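FAQ: What does the model actually see?

It sees only this:
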Amino acid sequence: MPIDISGPRPNGRTPDGRTPDGQTGDGQTGDGSVPTETGGGSGSVRVFFDAILHPHRSLGRGGFRVLMGVVVLMNLIVAGIFVVHGAWPVVPFCGLDVLALWLAFRVSYRSARQYERVRLTENALTVQRVHWKAPERRWSFHPYWLRITHSEPADHDRNGPAGQVTLSSHGQSVGVGSFLSPDERSSFARALGDALRAWRRPPCPPAPAG
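And it is asked to produce this:
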């Protein structure tokens, strides 16, 4: 599931358990109220938007097991044919493609542990980036000054940079969703923009000094 998302719709109602791309999210409320989170002793905090972005994986764990089973079976059949014809020295090489495939999927599933979380509350918009081979990073923006820019490379520019949604304010910027598909990025950008407009509707918090 590339996107898990929760938060109110532009009319103030929460989603019906669906993400912008049709996936089921988490953390929604069904009573038409803005989701809240209890802060230790400081009351509740209004949450306008909360999305977790994951890299897309077309083959799940079950499918991987089936694929590996088929590949192993085919290699056993080929190895048996070589043995019958006396070419047993070739047999060890039949397992190399199995090993290479297993290693490739191991790296792929390890990279799937990365995610980006974008969260808009009444106090701040925060971005959390978790990568399996890099330290966790966080950014924080005041929603009043925040700008959202969605860019995609031209269709003919296959070697250009990947598209992304850029969040910027006061000279600080961060790109999110570069591993999503263009349609997923577009849905995410629209949903975040709607949540930001809901945040800015009166009575929104005052603009920070400076």
